[in-house]
């Protein structure tokens, strides 16, 4: 180790590249590997949105926007969440366009956290929050939901808030959930809100999959807790725009005013060309995601039926595009070992549950953001591996 290396921020030593990416890279070199690993839509960005991006380039929209993003985009983004989810924000003061949901999470948490703070999160959960918390010298606290159908109950939440007391500054919610696909009914959201409103805590609600809810209507907790909630959303999942990197932060003016400082020094502003495309996605292309949603629902039903038939215990997902399944007792129970063995012997790659926290051990995550033809082949390979 060089002398300078020793002077790097020690907090960086406490984090690592996510196990999702590590595993994906590990198995990518296997010949003929079929991957259902990453949470990325297999659809192309809608044509009307692509055309808007091309036009932005030819019209020379290649300069900075303001820190908060294009005024017209913030305005239609606020109109979108108001129309879809009944939450109201002032586009001039309560909305920021970000470089995807990832930067929205980072800017929000960095603006809130300091050493000694605790952050409550239901687990299993997407692994993108903990590293930011760690870099901010705060402490993640996990609430295990494996015994409650992967649903954070009011009782579990209240117990954790009481146990950790004033040191809790933030509660993170992610629904529909990555990795489980589980989401919350309106009644369940209201019940969580009734607990949270009794405590002086921020609620960071990552609702990036809100447009991919299959069996009911998505309810944002910001509807019930507008003064406590920072709402995060974006176009990566709803409009197959992962590479365009457009996310949104919505929240009370007093909080957004502070978050934008962090956002500015992280990225200055989101891509102008992407913002022009995003404007069209939320206006002309507002319903373009419906075809994708219908396809995902058909795929969900297929994978759920197959996995259940194969003996996996599955909490039926009601949103997003993931199935989280418990490995049957007759097979390798260490999720990483199971997934490596499956990849090497059957050329099928799915994500080990341990990537989403200790509560995910013994489970696997399958992304069904792939064609039915691909999913059929994947299930054939899994069936052969299981030797059913």
From TrEMBL:
PROSITE patterns, alphabetized: AA_TRANSFER_CLASS_1
Domain Aminotransferase class I/classII large, residue spans: 32-382
Top EC class, one word: transferase
Family, as annotated: Belongs to the class-I pyridoxal-phosphate-dependent aminotransferase family.
Cofactor: pyridoxal 5'-phosphate
GO molecular function: transaminase activity
Keywords for this protein: Aminotransferase, Pyridoxal phosphate, Transferase
Matching InterPro entries: Aminotransferase_I/II_large, AspAT/PAT-like, NHTrfase_class1_PyrdxlP-BS, PyrdxlP-dep_Trfase, PyrdxlP-dep_Trfase_major, PyrdxlP-dep_Trfase_small
Organism of provenance: Enterococcus lemanii
Name of the featured protein: Aminotransferase
Pfam families in UniProt: Aminotran_1_2
EC code(s) of this entry: 2.6.1.-
């Amino acid at each position: 180790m060089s002398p300078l290396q020793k002077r790097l921020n020690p907090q960086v030593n406490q984090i690592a590249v996510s196990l999702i990416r590590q595993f994906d890279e590990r198995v990518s070199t296997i010949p003929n590997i079929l991957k259902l690993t990453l949470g990325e839509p297999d659809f192309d960005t809608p044509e009307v949105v692509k055309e808007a991006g091309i036009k932005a380039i030819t019209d020379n929209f290649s300069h900075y926007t303001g820190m908060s993003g294009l005024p017209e985009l913030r305005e239609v983004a606020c109109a979108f969440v108001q129309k879809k989810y009944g939450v109201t924000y002032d586009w001039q003061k309560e909305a920021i366009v970000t470089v995807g949901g990832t930067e929205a999470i980072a800017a929000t948490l960095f603006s809130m956290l300091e050493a000694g703070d605790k952050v409550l999160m239901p687990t299993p959960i997407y692994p993108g929050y903990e590293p930011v918390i760690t870099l901010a010298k705060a402490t993640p606290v996990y609430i295990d939901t494996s015994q409650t159908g992967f649903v954070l109950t009011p009782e579990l939440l209240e117990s954790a808030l009481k146990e950790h007391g004033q040191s809790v500054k933030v509660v993170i919610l992610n629904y529909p959930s990555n990795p489980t696909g589980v989401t919350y009914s309106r009644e369940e959201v209201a019940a969580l809100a009734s607990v949270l409103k009794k405590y002086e805590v921020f609620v960071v609600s990552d609702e990036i999959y809100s447009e991919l809810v299959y069996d009911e209507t998505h309810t944002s907790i910001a509807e019930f807790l507008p003064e406590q909630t920072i709402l995060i959303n974006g176009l990566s999942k709803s409009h197959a725009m992962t590479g365009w990197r457009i996310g949104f932060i919505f929240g009370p003016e007093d909080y957004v005013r502070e978050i934008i400082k962090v956002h500015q020094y992280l990225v200055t502003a989101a891509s102008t060309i992407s913002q022009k495309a995003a404007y069209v996605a939320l206006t002309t292309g507002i319903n373009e995601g419906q075809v994708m949603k219908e396809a995902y629902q058909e795929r969900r039903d297929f994978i759920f039926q197959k996995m259940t038939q194969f003996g996996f215990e599955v909490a039926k997902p009601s949103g997003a595009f993931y199935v989280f399944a418990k490995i049957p007792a007759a097979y390798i129970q260490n999720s990483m070992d199971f997934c490596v063995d499956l990849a090497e012997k059957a050329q099928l790659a799915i994500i080990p549950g341990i990537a989403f926290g200790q509560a995910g051990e013994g489970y696997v995550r399958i992304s069904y953001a792939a064609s039915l033809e691909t999913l059929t082949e994947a299930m054939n390979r899994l069936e052969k591996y299981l030797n059913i």
